[in-house]
Amino acid sequence: MTKTIKIIQPDDWHVHLREGEMLKQVTKCTSRVNKRCIAMPNTNIPITTSKLALEYKKIIKENSFNKNFDPLIPCYLTENLKLEDFRLGLEKNIFIGGKLYPTNATTNSEFGVHNIKSIYPVLEIIENKKKVLLVHGEKIRNNIDIFDREKYFIDEDLVKIRHDFPNLKIVLEHVSSSYGVDFVNSNNNIAGTITPHHMMLTKKDVFSNNTINPHHFCMPVVKTENDLISIRNAACNNNSKFFLGTDSAPHHVDQKHPNLSTKAGIFSASISIELYAQIFEEEGCLDKFEKFSSINGPKFYNLPINNNHIILSKEDWEVPNYLEKDEIKIKNFFGGKKLSWKLNEVNYS
Ligand code: DOR
Ligand code: ZN
After folding, report:
1. How far apart are CA 149 and CA 52, in angstroms?
2. 99 CB near ligand 1 (under 6 Å)
3. What predicted TM-score, i.e. pTM, was given to this entire model?
4. What is the pLDDT of residue 1?
5. CB atoms < 10 A from the CB of 169, how many?
6. Residue 349: its pLDDT value, please?
7. What distance lies between CA 56 and its chain's CA centroid?
8. The domain 4-346 is classified under which CATH number: 3.30.365.10, 3.40.50.300, 3.30.950.10, 3.20.20.140?
9. What's the DSSP call for residue 146?
10. Measured distance CA(73)–CA(268) in Å, rounded
């Protein structure tokens, strides 16, 4: 008989669903398996107001695989945010929290935050409303090496935020280093999302022979074997502080180049739960999978745990190279490679 695993339906606590035609295709993938997602607000027109957030939610829902899919939106924080609109947006649950993008850290982050002190009134509101600050934790400065950005952000900014707002709930998104894992583990009111690619790739998979593999290039960039092991341990050992967030970030293949002018982002939404299952199996921790995929996230966000279940079956299959429809062509992470788990049943009630 085929081996199967049954887990509570997961949520993706960090995903990019984009806009237009691309949104239609990638939203199908994310809503096929997840009950909820946090759809990141770094769209071409960033989601900085509650009006934009409501419109974005509506479009996502209209394009979902199942009608019960629930997209949650954080507000894109800027230095001149309309505070009253933000406060009301949090109160009415239009926003799940605020997303801090340091200026020029990643895709569409040019309207992000340069000086953290300038958003202290915003952080105070998030703390008082018991919502969540989601952080792209990278410090961008000419003399900071791309591999050290997370560490510098923690040392120069996150330590201060933690100190000045001790009750503020923070998610360090896409933790990419053992330094980041240690910081989350040793501080209160902070959790971390973990992507499949930060548990599967190291810098050798991105940079070799003076060229880069644009399909493995993301922000924060994947790092050393030691970092990968530390992130795997954080995910796979029943640690409540870490949960599923794919950071699936699609770009059209035309935007992917074998040099640093390429767009950063790895598209994994089409195979996300299967990738995580494979990692947990490799670590001999399938019994701890559900806690990471379906329990730790809602607990941190103070939301109910999903009622439904999904079933994955043990079955080898080859991931298609591309998600392709009309003018959309996106490279699938793991395209052309074999996965050993397949989603086979979801009850969408
Ligand atoms: O690689 C990334 N791509 N990292 C991010 O933080 C953003 C994302 C995107 O939106 O393309
Ligand atoms: Zn992201």
Report:
1. 31
2. no
3. 0.98
4. 75
5. 20
6. 63
7. 18
8. 3.20.20.140
9. G
10. 20
